[in-house]
Write a structure and sequence with these properties.
With 150 residues, the chain is of the alpha+beta class. It has four helices and six strands; from the N terminus they run βαβββββααα. It has a six-stranded mixed β-sheet with strand order 1-6-5-4-2-3. The longest helix is centred in the last third of the chain and has 18 residues. The protein is globular.
Length: 150
């Protein structure tokens, strides 16, 4: 119907699965603020910043769906973002995160941090991110939504 679709975290995993990718447990959990790097692709695709700290909270990953463009990666997760055509994007990272939503996540899901790992930050590190970082990722989310609504 020509409508934009944005899948975030589980939503991206569902979109990836529908498009033929395999969803599996990740080799390591990624929870906290970690750098995401752009993957060069077609100029018509959504463009990520070369490198940017983004918020993550996931323990699953997926293969790149057939017929999609790989948009971004991180050290813990080779496929952070993909795009299908001009109207569907899947994100593992959480560009919608606000200080309030992070507080809620920590209040209700902190048990998921117990297993630790190299890409699981301590709570105090997660909470130390300045407001400007939330504004940057929220601005990138707004740009992505504008792109999908064209």
């Amino acid at each position: 119907q020509g409508k934009g679709v944005l899948g975030i975290c589980l939503g991206a995993q569902l979109v990836a699965s529908v498009l033929g990718a395999t969803v599996t447990p990740a080799q390591t959990r990624e929870m906290g603020w970690f750098q995401v790097c752009a993957v060069p692709n077609d100029a018509e695709m959504f463009t990520f910043p070369q490198a940017m700290e983004m918020f993550h909270w996931h323990a699953e990953t997926f293969s790149l769906p057939p017929g999609t463009a790989h948009l971004a990666r991180s050290a813990a997760c080779p496929i952070q973002a993909f795009q299908y055509g001009k109207k569907a994007i899947g994100l593992q990272c959480h560009l919608e995160t606000t200080p309030e939503s992070l507080q809620e996540l920590l209040e209700h899901c902190s048990d998921e941090l117990q297993s630790g790992g190299p890409f699981v930050q301590p709570v105090e590190v997660m909470l130390s991110m300045p407001d400007e970082q939330y504004q940057e990722i929220n601005h990138l989310m707004a740009q992505m939504l504008d792109y999908l609504c064209q």
